[in-house]
């Protein structure tokens, strides 16, 4: 599968939701700040975890992660926005000595796969500046399936490594299964069973295993139940490798010669300490409790982003609250987004919007109110006329009116919050 296609889609979707008028972070699941916009997790935006890891560490790959000629068409990033500038080592820092060739990586993949045939194999060795990878079409007799694995190195203590192995919130993406665990050797493993398209407009399944080791080795394997990632008919009910087999694939010591040939990654931004105090989902629950509307489900994405699904008997409606404290090192980070906003007597600035949903759900509308507190904390409250952003509308309008969204965003309970 061409990495450029995947990266282009990830960047386009990121660009679509990161705009100057402040609609950037409302529905994406980022913790806070522009740093995470560039490194949005795979499941949240439908892009590759490796793709976003590369953006966060060393700019974009110039070649395909799973190789050109993988059956998904020619690379196409012409419409993608300019990637963020590298923040760590330059592209050449991912280049090894060439101790492991492309042919050797293909041999390793064949050795680790269960009984079957691997065709259309392509790879890059450790001397390739785009980073080592291997991919092909695997057939165990039950249908052809695209499969591939990318190798890289990251700072194992950095924020990016942490993001790579976290499950997304089910409020932002529907999937069949996800687990994140710490292994006995200290490695962290993500096993994800989802779909190529978050809105499931086709039944192509996308399963992956992502492993980050204490040494900073990053292995990301992905498989589909079709011969190519996109634009191919489904050939089997599920991808060929079970989650346990994917785990064994990325954890195999046979990849170590290639990984050891790559230089260590530069130190990346450290994990930001979690905001103290109650979680966003808890705060949202208290703020909507006065409206006497039953809460039928809730989700959280860390401390600062929470979702509730409300149902007044006329259809389910999702409401979200995101808290974005000011940056202590660079205060006023959100100020420009509120140029021309209404200013309340206490100094709070307020923006209100009503627009169509952006995650593919049929008939979905998105209402939001943002407030910038005098202390620099940004509060974003959104409501949808569906139980999630990617499912069809269940009602004509969100369960909370714009007035109630404004009441939540500008509540006196926010006074002094985040100080």
How would you explain this protein's 3D organization?
It is a single chain. Helices cover 19% and strands 24% of the residues. The chain is built from ten helices and 14 strands. Strand 1 and strand 2 form a beta hairpin. The longest helix is centred in the first third of the chain and has 15 residues, at 3-17. It is α+β, with helices and mostly antiparallel strands and 419 residues long. The strands form two sheets. The protein has a seven-stranded antiparallel beta sheet. A seven-stranded antiparallel beta sheet has the order 8-9-10-14-13-12-11, covered by helices on one side.
**DSSP summary, beta strand count:** 14
Tell me the structural class.
alpha+beta
Please state roughly what percent of the residues sit in beta strands, choosing from under 5%, 5-15%, 15-25%, 25-35%, 35-45% or over 45%.
15-25%
Main sheet: strands, sense, barrel: 7 strands, antiparallel
The parts where pLDDT drops under 50 for at least 5 residues are: 1-92
Number of helices: 10
Helices and strands, with pairings:
Layout: H1 3-17, H2 34-37, H3 42-45, H4 49-58, H5 102-112, E1 117-124, E2 133-139, E3 144-153, H6 159-164, E4 177-182, E5 188-195, E6 205-212, E7 217-224, H7 243-251, H8 256-260, H9 280-288, E8 295-300, E9 305-311, E10 316-324, E11 342-343, E12 349-356, E13 365-372, E14 378-384, H10 402-409
Summarize the structure.
The protein is an alpha+beta fold. It contains 10 helices and 14 strands.
List keywords for this structure.
419 residues, alpha+beta, globular, disordered N terminus
């Amino acid at each position: 599968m061409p990495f450029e296609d995947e990266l282009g889609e990830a960047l386009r979707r990121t660009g679509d939701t990161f705009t100057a008028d402040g609609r950037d972070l409302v529905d994406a699941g980022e913790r806070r700040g522009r740093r995470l916009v560039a490194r949005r997790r795979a499941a949240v935006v439908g892009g590759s975890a490796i793709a976003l890891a590369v953006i966060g560490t060393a700019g974009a790959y110039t070649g395909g992660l799973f190789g050109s000629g993988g059956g998904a068409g020619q690379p196409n990033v012409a419409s993608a926005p300019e990637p963020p500038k590298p923040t760590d080592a330059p592209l050449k820092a991912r280049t090894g000595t060439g101790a492991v060739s492309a042919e050797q990586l293909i041999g390793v993949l064949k050795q680790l796969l269960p009984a079957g045939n691997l065709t259309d194999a392509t790879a890059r060795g450790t001397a390739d500046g785009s980073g080592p990878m291997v991919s092909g079409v695997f057939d165990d007799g039950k249908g052809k399936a695209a499969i591939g694995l990318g190798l890289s190195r990251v700072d194992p203590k950095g924020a990016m490594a942490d993001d790579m192995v976290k499950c997304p919130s089910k409020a932002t993406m529907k999937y069949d299964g996800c687990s994140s665990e710490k292994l006995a050797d200290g490695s962290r493993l993500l096993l994800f069973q989802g779909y190529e398209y978050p809105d499931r407009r086709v039944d192509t399944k996308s399963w992956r295993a992502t492993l980050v080791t204490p040494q900073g080795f990053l292995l990301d394997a992905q498989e589909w139940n079709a011969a190519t990632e996109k634009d191919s008919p489904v050939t089997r009910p599920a991808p060929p490798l079970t989650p346990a087999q994917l785990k064994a694939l990325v954890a195999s010591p046979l990849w170590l010669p290639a990984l050891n040939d790559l230089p260590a990654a530069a130190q990346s931004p450290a994990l930001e300490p979690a905001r103290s105090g109650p979680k966003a989902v808890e705060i949202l629950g208290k703020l909507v409790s006065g409206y006497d509307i039953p809460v039928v489900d809730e989700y959280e994405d860390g401390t600062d982003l929470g979702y509730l699904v409300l149902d007044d008997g006329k259809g389910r409606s999702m409401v979200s609250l995101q808290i974005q404290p000011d940056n202590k090192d660079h205060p006023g980070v959100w100020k420009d987004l509120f140029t021309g906003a209404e200013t309340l007597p206490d100094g709070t600035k307020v923006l209100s919007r009503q627009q169509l949903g952006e995650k593919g759900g049929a008939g979905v509308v998105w209402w939001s109110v943002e407030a910038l507190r005098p202390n620099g904390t940004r509060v974003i409250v959104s409501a949808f006329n569906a139980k999630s952003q990617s499912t069809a509308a269940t009602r004509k309008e969100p369960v909370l009116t714009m007035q109630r969204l404004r009441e939540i965003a500008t509540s006196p309970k926010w006074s002094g919050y985040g100080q």
